[in-house]
Amino acid sequence: MPEFDVTVPHISRVYDYWLGGKNNFAADRELGEQTMQAYPNIVYSVRANRAFLVRAVRFLTAEMGIRQFLDIGAGLPSANNVHEVAQHEAPDSRVVYADNDPIVLSHARALLRSTPQGGLAYLDADVRDPDAILASAAETLDFSEPVAITLLTVLQFVPGDEAGAIVARLMAACVPGSFLAISHPASDIDVEHHSAMVRRMNESMAQLVTLRDLASVTGLFAGLELVEPGVVKPSLWRPDSDIEAATPTVLWAGVARKPSLTASPPP
Ligand SMILES: C[S@@+](CC[C@H](N)C(=O)[O-])C[C@H]1O[C@@H](n2cnc3c(N)ncnc32)[C@H](O)[C@@H]1O
Q1: Neighbours of 5 (CB within 10 A)
Q2: Which atom of ligand 1 is least distant from the CA of 126?
Q3: Are 204 and 7 in contact (CB under 8 A)?
Q4: pLDDT, tens digit, 9 for 90 and up, residues 189-226
Q5: How many helices and strands, by DSSP H and E, does the chain display?
Q6: For ligand 1, atom 7: residue with the closest CA
């Protein structure tokens, strides 16, 4: 079992607490409570994020024919993990989970099971090292076929322009017809209360959060074709019901396709 300091709150476990999970320690619960008091809508927001995961993966599998997923910043196993949604639609789907929290990986290895027809792998990897992730993921995924890369509420841990460079590197390794899904905490929704909550998190967590606005999150999809309705609050990304659409959320989210190479114009 890897060593970790349970006295310092960690985002994977605070997030688990917000979702009502049991994989958290006293320090995570304390910060979870403080942040929920500072910004009660965080609980709805993280649920809207998980619901977006379900709709996006279902869309990619059932409607776009994707059978390979690379989920970076996967988080602790929860309800409706990527492989469960994908393999429900297409049992032969293969999914690679990557996270840099050793607890996430040990729980994932213990709890998550693939269908016999599909495949599942777990990488102890940092999103800031996309080349290492791509090299290890290639042991399970075939990068000569389309892949969907999901970066759901993880790029806020990468400040500045590095986030865009990471996305560009990951998508450069994928063939046209591949997809990218991102959700990201917003700097321009519920500004006062959300910023106060994030300040509180940044005072006690080792992983510092950088918020981004709609234009910056849209910029992460540079060179890709956004699927309708574009970058929106996750609750408004193809909601299944009016209730889902009305869920308060403080995130931006979108899905985009890597276009085919444009043919050169005739001489
Ligand atoms: C807020 S949780 C999101 C979980 C899941 N993707 C979701 O949206 O429901 C963020 C996850 O990203 C992981 N993470 C944070 N920084 C990371 C990094 N630099 N590289 C890889 N994973 C990271 C954390 O350990 C945590 O499990």
Answers
A1: 10
A2: 20
A3: no
A4: 999 999 999 999 999 998 999 999 999 999 999 999 99
A5: 10, 7
A6: 152
For the cut 70, the answer to whether the pLDDT of residue 1 exceeds it is no
Centre of ligand 1 to C-alpha 65, Å, is: 26
Task: State the chain's mean pLDDT as an integer.
Answer: 94
Q: Do you know the residue count of the chain?
A: 267
> Could you give the 3-state DSSP secondary structure of residue 98?
strand
pLDDT digits (tens, 9 = 90+) for 35-83: 999 999 999 999 999 999 999 999 999 999 999 999 999 998 888 999 9
- Give the pLDDT of residue 6: 85
Neighbours of 138 (CB within 10 A): 15
Q: Which atom of ligand 1 is nearest to the CA of 127?
A: 20
Q: Ligand 1 pocket, 152 CB below 6 A?
A: yes
| Identity of the residue numbered 194 | H
Q: Looking up tokens 């409706």, which residue turns up? A: 80
Token digits of residue 178 = 């591949």
Percent helix, percent strand, percent coil in the chain, to nearest 5: 40, 15, 45
